[in-house]
């Protein structure tokens, strides 16, 4: 087991933070063979827990725990050996993290949000509040809200005192929900060349392709940006010109990418770039 990450995980669990290991690429551990492709009832992008009782850290945030017996168990041993970092489920600890991705939005937060405990990140800061809400990425350019059904990489205790979750943060999500979705996230059906029936209309064929794309994104251990773009490109090259894809399909791909830490802005750019590369 990792001599670095397991002790940190046990200490955090003792403070009440449900924790889980992240791979070297800073993404969650992938589904095991038993749980792969919704076999256990969960979703392949691991965003919602199913009825699964897998003893492995197999369902991202849904596997997070404060139980030291689970954290040190044999099924978790391999995960800790592979771990590149420790993450926690903020919603499980009654917290909300405002993830500020660059200096401009950090400056915006200092002017518009009440001061609270802050943790420095590679590009910005995490602002941590007491209270929970639904998690939404891309509520503003460079701002993600992580609380329930989400995970956050542990980067230290930070500075300051945790304050109650302000209505200002909830309003960010309400405003984002009321705004139109980016046009690039919507696939416009392309008319068939001969007016014939699309061969991809088979539900099994299309579902298999989308599930495999989700799994490819989820399994990326490093180079997540490249993996997301490559997957979008592959999906569009097969299904992009025949009218198969719906907003629901694209939404699944975006959700899988955002679960790996991609922002909505990055997803939209990758989707647009894939369109352009294929001349669509």
Shape: globular
Helix fraction bin: 25-40%
Number of helices: 9
Q: List low-pLDDT spans.
A: 181-197
Question: How would you summarize this macromolecular structure in one to three sentences?
Answer:
This protein is α+β, with helices and mostly antiparallel strands. The protein contains 9 helices and 9 strands. Helix 6 (203-218) packs antiparallel against helix 7, helix 6 packs parallel to helix 8 (247-259) and helix 7 (224-239) crosses helix 9 (264-277).
What does this 3D model show about the protein?
The chain is α+β, with helices and mostly antiparallel strands and 280 residues long. It has nine helices and nine strands. The strands form two sheets. Strands 3, 4, 5, 6, 7 and 9 form a six-stranded mixed β-sheet that branches. A three-stranded antiparallel β-sheet has the order 1-2-8. A hairpin with a 2-residue loop joins β6 and β7. It is globular, with a radius of gyration of 20 Å. 39% of the residues are buried. About 6% of the residues have low confidence.
């Amino acid at each position: 087991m990792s001599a670095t990450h397991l002790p940190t995980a046990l200490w955090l669990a003792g403070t009440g933070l449900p924790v889980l290991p992240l791979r070297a690429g800073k993404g969650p551990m992938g589904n095991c063979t038993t749980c792969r492709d919704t076999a256990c009832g969960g979703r392949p992008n691991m965003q919602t827990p199913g009825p699964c009782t897998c003893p492995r850290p197999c369902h991202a945030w849904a596997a997070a725990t404060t139980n030291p017996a689970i954290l040190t168990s044999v099924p978790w041993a391999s995960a800790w050996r592979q771990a590149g970092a420790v993450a926690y489920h903020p919603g499980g600890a009654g917290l909300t993290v405002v993830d500020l991705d660059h200096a401009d939005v950090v400056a915006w937060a200092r002017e518009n949000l009440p001061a609270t405990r802050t943790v420095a990140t590679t590009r910005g800061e995490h602002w941590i509040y007491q209270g929970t809400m639904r998690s939404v990425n891309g509520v503003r350019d460079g701002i993600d809200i992580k609380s329930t059904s989400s995970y956050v990489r542990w980067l230290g205790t930070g500075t300051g005192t945790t304050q109650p979750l302000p209505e200002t943060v909830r309003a960010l999500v309400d405003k984002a929900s009321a705004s139109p979705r980016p046009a690039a996230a919507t696939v416009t059906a392309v008319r068939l060349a001969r007016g014939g029936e699309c061969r991809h209309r088979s539900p099994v064929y299309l579902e298999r392709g989308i599930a495999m794309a989700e799994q490819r994104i989820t399994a990326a251990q490093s180079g997540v940006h490249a993996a997301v773009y490559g997957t979008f490109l592959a999906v569009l090259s097969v299904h992009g010109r025949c009218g198969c894809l719906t907003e629901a399909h694209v939404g699944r791909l975006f959700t899988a990418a955002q679960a790996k830490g991609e922002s909505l802005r990055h997803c939209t750019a990758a989707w647009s770039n894939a369109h352009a590369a294929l001349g669509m």
